[in-house]
Amino acid sequence: MAEDVWILGISMTKFGKHPGRDHVDLASEAALAALADAGVGIRDIGVLAAGSLTAGSSSFGQQIQKQIGQTGIPVYNVANACATGATALRVALLEIKAGEADLGLAVGVEMLSGAGLLGAPPRQDKGGTWTPTGRFGAITPLEGRVGTDSMPGVFAQIGLEYGHRYGGASFELFARIAEKNHAHSTLNPLAAYQKRFTVEQIMNDVMIAYPNTRPMCSANCDGAAAVVVVSDRKLRTLSPEQRRRAVKISASVLTSDPWQEACQVLPDVNTLTRQAATRAYEQSGIGPDELDLVELHDCFATAELVHYDNLMLCEQGGAVDFFNSGATWRDGRTPVNVSGGLESKGHPIAATGIANIWEICQHLRAEAGDRQIEGARVGLAHVIGLGSACGVHVLEKAAG
User: Fold this and answer.
1) What share of the chain is helix, strand, coil (3-state, %, to 5)?
2) Confidence at 388, pLDDT banded by 50, 70, 90
3) What is residue 260's predicted lDDT score, i.e. its pLDDT?
4) 5-114+220-397: CATH topology
5) Are 28 and 113 in contact (CB under 8 A)?
6) φ, ψ of residue 41 in degrees (nearest 5)
7) CA angle at 56 for the pair 50 and 60, rounded to the nearest 5°
């Protein structure tokens, strides 16, 4: 059996707007912070995996090296939609499991403030110039009123389909999910937005694609996140403090859509998530009822609801009752998106997969400050990339 892999250091930048900086600047900031958090230097790293969908270079990882140190190690440049960061982490992890390296570094970064959502059409002004559309999903005003193949429309359909099948998924319920996440964000100093909204404010905001209004949509922003992973063998040689803060990666799973007729038109985010979760629980030996917190891919409020079910946090068809029970709030039995989620923490696409893991690590290390989930020992991080890809990681606090 391949040896265990641990998170030794992890970091994320403040999400939001970073004018005057570029992809390499933000990625380097996150990478150097992750190295410092791990207590190692770039010369200790045996592999680098870097991801960005907007950096505009097929050798982006090598550009990061020029900022943080060129040591001749292998570099993997990764792109896998919103699962890019989680995929970069898996690349480094698999290199370690293969015995190719003892320490690896994975980085994800995006610069999206002021940009339209990837895949959404830009707006043409009277002079003929095409420009991206605003924030919070940045979708054209027609979205939700005509047919669509863009992400807000797709996830609106997914949420409505769940409500049609199982009942109870009202417009107000989706607004209450967003209310929870925005409330959680007020305790996260690195979130792009830290503002609490009432259900009424959320429901009366700009409609993007029914039933998702603007505050129910993920916030495009700038940001980066990075993680240092280490082999079990190498970890044993490090200091007691490094070992104490290490977080075990008990499961690392990546899936894509299996073939079915329906998903040739509408991406099936349900099946690939359920299959990833099933494999992750089997790999880790941990069940969903043992999770102390979950960071899931709430690119829209409708997505969060269906992923309660897909991740088996509730019985099949029971997502509405699960949310209504209060389970997903910070003081509930299975806190979900304590960071504020993508709706308020922000969604710099390639950074998100690692940022979700960063949040779990903060709690397992008891370093989450005011939003700390007391006694947290096990967490799950989930990310979806339409196209399709799903990454699920189960993380455990170091024993002793």
Assistant:
1) 40, 20, 40
2) confident
3) 78
4) Peroxisomal Thiolase; Chain A, domain 1 (3.40.47)
5) no
6) -120, 170
7) 30
Query: What separation in angstroms does the CA of 176 have from each of 183, 302, 329?
Result: 10, 11, 11
Name the residue with tokens 């996830």.
Answer: 155
Cα Rg, the chain, nearest whole Å:
20
Specify the DSSP class assigned to residue 196. Answer: -
Q: Which two tokens stand for residue 128?
A: 């003929």
208, containing H or E segment = strand 207-209
The amino acid sitting at 213 is: T
User: In the chain, where are the structural domains located?
Assistant: 5-114+220-397
Q: What pLDDT score was predicted for residue 125?
A: 46
Question: d(Cα 339, Cα 356) in Å, to the nearest integer?
Answer: 8
For the stretch 127-150, pLDDT in tens is 444 344 443 344 444 443 444 567
- Quick check: 305 and 175 in contact, CB under 8 A? no
Q: What is the 3-state secondary structure (H, E, C) of 17-39?
A: CCCCCCHHHHHHHHHHHHHHHHC
Strand partners, 390: 255, 384
Q: What pTM did the predictor assign?
A: 0.91
| Tokens 């100093």 found at | 189
Which ranges in the chain belong to alpha helices (H)? 23-38, 60-68, 84-97, 151-166, 171-185, 199-203, 232-235, 240-245, 269-284, 301-310, 319-324, 341-344, 349-364
Report pLDDT digits (tens) over 296-345.
999 999 999 999 999 999 999 999 999 999 999 999 999 999 999 999 99
Instruction: Tell me if 241 sits within 8 A of 38, measured CB to CB.
Output: no
Rounded CA gap, 83 and 297, in Å?
10
